[in-house]
Amino acid sequence: MQTRPSSYPTHTQISNLLSSFLPPAAHDLPFHYHHPLHPLYNPSNNPVRQLVLALHPSPTTYHLLSQPHTAAFLHRPFSLNRRRIRRGNLVLASHTAFDAALTVGYNVHLASRLGLDVERGGSRCVQGYKGDAERKIGIVGLLDKPESMDVMLGRIHREFGGEGEVFLPPTSGHNVVADAQVEAEIDAVDQRGQGLGDWQVKVLAIMNAFHAEEVRRVIDMSVEAGRTAGEARGKEILYLTGAARPYGLEAAAAHDMPAFCVGHLSCEKWGIRFLADRVKEEFPGLDVHEIYEEEEMNRVKGDDLVESMDERDRNSESNGNSASEQTEEKVTTS
Q1: H and E: helices and strands count for the chain
Q2: Residue 197's pLDDT is what?
């Protein structure tokens, strides 16, 4: 039996690295979503030559998972057809924790890259949502230094590949609260040629919920912490979130607060790119594949969906394959 090549990380090392960015969350998926069930399986000795990072199963994801020594991470693995995974391969998954920590929400990595003071206690966690007092839904804090709106929009565009749009409060000169009821007056504007260089942002809120209640909480937390004050307090806050919700935009406009909505899918892509970068730094010899294809829905129904290749292989000894032969194939096949 050949030994594991020292240049390749193991199942254990891949799991430990990815889980370090995904704190445990209530009601999340099993992190080890699909793994070998052979009695001699040892995650500390199984090499990974290529890692797939994807939002969901897709044709390319399945193609790569049919190859030996492959591991994958999926954000939404619900349609995964386990029959199409080569035995010995590993699939990790996270839905709730990924949304909370690696999209817009309590994402300290994104916050730091956008200039939020995270390390020196300049930020606060927005916690509690839909009856769950422990759920973290955002981070609010003071920027390292006040920045013009055009600078902030440039940073956000770079992080999200140019996707998303900024919504400014109505500028018609009418009463702000009255204008907030008119959706047509909440215009998406381009960052160029709009005089945004004079608009100063002091506080950044990164949130994965966008209702009137969350807008109010962001303002209250900012005022309580002494970040903003006076009539212009909403204008000094930039609310960064995913989907552009009409009721959220109305609430933000009513408080004279600008909002940047990057879109749901863009948020998730950011998380995949972040994990890919961290894996490449930690394991430079590993082939890392970021897959952004559309989901391939599973065509297998019933018990076939939950029966993995490993479960079938576990019973293959009765057909003439010994456990040692199976383990050797798992390590040496290329």
Answers
A1: 12, 12
A2: 66
